[in-house]
Write a structure and sequence with these properties.
179 residues, alpha+beta, Translation Initiation Factor IF3, 2 domains, 4 helices, 9 strands
């Protein structure tokens, strides 16, 4: 039954109040009537009596086509989900001794992600003796930040997590999305 769920309104015989404030299908207030009389009026017009304000005294009920009403609500919810922007987290991995061409290529990918509105995690991975040269990794991350300053901003300064030094970039709202 539709009225069993908490978020759906009660319809027809599910309405328990003895009297209701009735609104007809055109939105005109009819007045306070008994629930049985309101249900009869709705059935004469081949429509449903729907409780739209259950907490009011007396509850407000409207005569409407409940199936059509539910369909329109579902359509609105679907349109709202379509317009919603899902922000993904992308990750680009680099090394402290990265070559200029590789750096340019990966930075171009970071810029593209930021322009599409995604958050980007830039990671520099250290192996073996490279752990003693953490400043090189920080230099790489600072170069990435400088290259992408017009389309993204830094959430926090570079952070060490195990053998990775990470930097989070978020898109600048409106700035890069127009390209």
């Amino acid at each position: 039954m539709p009225g069993n769920e908490e978020n759906t309104p009660r319809i027809n015989h599910e309405i328990t109040s003895p009297q209701v404030l009735l609104v007809d299908e055109n939105g005109v207030k009819v007045g306070i009537t008994s629930t049985i009389e309101a249900i009869r009026m709705a059935q004469e017009q081949s429509l449903d009596l729907v409780e739209v304000a259950p907490l009011a005294q007396p509850p407000v009920c409207r005569i409407m086509d409940y199936g059509k009403y539910r369909y329109q609500l579902q359509k609105k919810e679907k349109d709202a989900r379509k317009k919603q922007k899902v922000q993904e987290l992308k990750e680009i991995k680099m090394r402290p001794k990265i070559d200029d061409h590789d750096f340019d290529f990966k930075t171009k990918a970071v810029r593209a992600f930021l322009e599409k509105g995604h958050r980007v995690k830039v990671s520099v991975f250290f192996r073996g003796r490279e752990m003693s040269f953490l400043d090189r990794g920080e230099e790489v991350l600072n170069r990435v930040l400088a290259e992408c300053a017009d389309v993204g901003k830094c959430e926090s300064k570079p952070v060490m997590e195990g053998r990775y030094m990470r930097l989070m970039l978020t898109p600048i709202s409106g700035g890069g999305a127009s390209k």
